[in-house]
Write a structure and sequence with these properties.
heterodimer; A: mainly alpha; about 0% strand; B: alpha/beta; Alpha-Beta Plaits; 2 domains; six-stranded mixed beta sheet; 11 helices
Chain lengths: ~270, ~300
């Protein structure tokens, strides 16, 4: 029988360890400052340099982008850059930085325990493989999701307050952005986490194992390019379908990860 | 039946035969040593005993229970000090002990009093609120031992308990470990390549080399049984320095080491031939003051069985 209280004991110990390391803490939190600061920086530039900034996008380019973001047709073209940054760039940054953040925590939690040599004593306790595995998942996933949600809420509040006069009310986030940050970012980060766990049993250092999630940045870049050239359309239905696919992929990855979670292999690769 | 019974263990790691039919028994209250050079298979044996590795064949029984079929029950009666650091540097000593206590289902007041008890026993009560990362190696090892006995185990397994420690600290840790056995009644299994440590702490030994048990039994008995060379310290009343040729003439004298003008250590291949040698020495005008049998050391046994590079 799986004892979830044991898994929780492992998770809380990991959080204490992670958050007592200033380097780890900074590496985990700092990336989220970027999606928070970027739209505010652009808005401040607007305030200082006026609407000239809005003219960096030509009418023909706006027409092209309006095919992907139909709402661009309803807003003042001068504020198109603010809109695009908030709707396209910010959610992508949240996805990428949730992935980066979870990779650091997961690597510290799994490979770190190996690297520091503490895993052997842990294996000698009456903790089952599944309890240890769940504990480590909680230790990695919960901080990442909390940070993503917290920084997104702050971003939403600040973006809305600072653009009240531009867009005439609380407009952020549109449903697509909410789905991307609140559903897709955690699901994508979860996939990254499973890759790092899988990698941790094959390498012996935190640095090596955290690299395993790096591969997931490639699809994000492909997506950005696809949207930029008008090859991909962002719609709620597509995002929902993508989320469902991600759930299935995550579950499959989790299953494979647990099935390959092997004490002996972990010890041998120390 | 022994408290720990290891039967015909075979283990391959990465295609290499690491354990080749290892068997031994550890009785209750015994201080048992797994002695051997680095890479002999000691740690692998212990990891199988703890259920971390699965044997390819053979089995390990603890208190009559097969380890791999009763992992959780078996782990509750074992305390383990691995060779690698087993503590979290970023947490305090107290938090480290508390964490392990929780994993063994020790909670609340019981855990609090157990932490105080093991801290007193290991002399670490003044460092409970200190971060482990700030402790000296010796103190850290004391904390690690406190952690290993926190669950009040019946068997304590220690893998290289004094490696990396200075001689003074190593002696202090060895004394503490021995007291856990002699005063606390804990059954000990100590993995080491340190002969001094093995002899100081343990009464029984399994000497392992290249995955095989090459010597096994009570240390005193083993020394008697295994030693093929018998050394005698002979003191004379007449100068012996110029009579060294006397020993080289005799085929049963394997070696003679003049230690002073009036003393020599002779090595014989048969213990009872000492009387022949003494008779001969007296007949050649050497008056004997004292003849003493030099007890063989575990080192003699070890070198005889394992060789000086672990290659016998």
């Amino acid at each position: 029988m799986v004892r979830l209280d044991k898994a929780w004991i492992v998770a809380t110990k990991d959080w204490e360890e992670i958050f007592k390391s200033k380097i780890t803490l900074v590496s985990v939190i700092l990336p989220f400052v970027v999606p928070l600061a970027l739209p505010l920086f652009i808005i401040i530039l607007y305030r200082y340099f006026g609407e000239d900034i809005g003219r960096f996008i030509s009418k023909s380019e706006l027409e092209l982008l309006a095919d992907v973001f139909p709402k661009l047709r309803d807003i003042d073209p001068n504020y198109a850059i603010i809109y695009l940054i908030c709707v396209l760039v910010v959610p992508l940054l949240f996805i990428v930085f949730s992935l980066a953040s979870i990779s650091i925590v997961t690597a510290d939690s799994f490979a770190g325990e190996k690297e520091r040599g503490t895993i052997e004593a842990l294996f000698a306790t009456p903790l089952s493989d599944l309890e240890l595995f769940i504990g480590k998942l909680l230790a990695s996933f919960i901080p990442s999701i909390l940070l993503t949600y917290s920084f997104f809420i702050i971003t939403v509040i600040l973006v809305n307050l600072s653009t009240l006069d531009y867009f005439g009310g609380f407009w952020y986030p549109p449903a697509e952005v909410a789905i991307a940050v609140l559903i897709i970012a955690p699901l994508y980060a979860f996939l990254g986490m499973t890759l790092v766990i899988w990698g941790s049993s094959r390498v012996s250092t935190v640095r090596d194992s955290s690299n395993y999630a790096g591969i997931l940045v490639i699809p994000v870049l492909v997506f950005v390019i696809g949207v930029s050239v008008g090859a991909l359309v962002i719609s709620i239905s597509y995002l929902v379908i993508f989320s469902v696919i991600l759930v299935i992929v995550d579950l499959l990855a989790l299953y494979i990860c647990y099935k390959t979670f092997d004490r002996e292999r972990l010890m041998i690769s120390v | 039946m022994g408290l720990v019974v290891v039967e015909n263990l075979v283990k391959l790691l990465g295609g290499r035969l690491v354990l080749d039919n290892i068997s031994f028994v550890v009785d209750e209250g015994e201080a048992f040593c797994l002695l051997g050079p680095n890479g002999a298979g000691k740690t692998t044996t212990v990891r199988i005993l703890l259920g971390i590795y699965r044997p390819d064949s053979g089995r390990v029984m603890v208190k009559g229970l097969d380890v791999h079929e009763n992992l959780s029950e078996v782990k509750r009666v074992i305390g383990y000090l691995p060779e690698t650091p087993s503590l979290y540097d970023r947490l305090t000593v107290y938090r480290n002990l508390e964490f392990y206590g929780h994993l063994f289902d020790i909670r609340g007041g019981e855990l609090e009093s157990r932490i105080r008890e093991v801290s007193r026993l290991l002399g670490i009560e003044d460092w409970l609120n200190e971060l482990v990362g700030r402790l000296s190696k010796g103190l850290r090892q004391r904390v690690a031992i406190a952690r290993a006995i926190l669950n009040n185990p019946e068997i304590l397994i220690l893998d290289q308990p004094t490696s990396d420690l200075d001689p003074g600290m190593a002696h202090s840790i060895r004394s503490t470990i021995r007291e856990l056995n002699t005063d606390g009644g804990l059954t000990l299994i100590v993995c080491t390549h340190n002969l001094q440590e093995a002899e100081f702490i343990c009464s029984k030994v399994a000497i392992i080399n290249r995955g095989r048990v090459v010597g096994y039994g009570d240390i005193k008995e083993l020394k008697r049984r295994m030693v093929k060379i018998h050394k005698f310290h002979i003191e004379t009343l007449d100068p012996i320095k110029n009579k060294v040729h006397l020993f080289s003439e005799l085929d049963y004298v394997i070696g003679a080491e003049i230690t002073s003008d009036y003393s020599v250590i002779v090595s014989l291949n048969k213990k009872d031939l000492i009387s022949d040698l003494i008779t001969l020495m007296v007949s050649r005008g050497l008056r004997i003051f004292e003849v003493r049998y030099v007890e063989p050391s575990l080192e003699d046994v070890y070198l005889d069985l394992v060789g000086d590079h672990g290659e016998a």
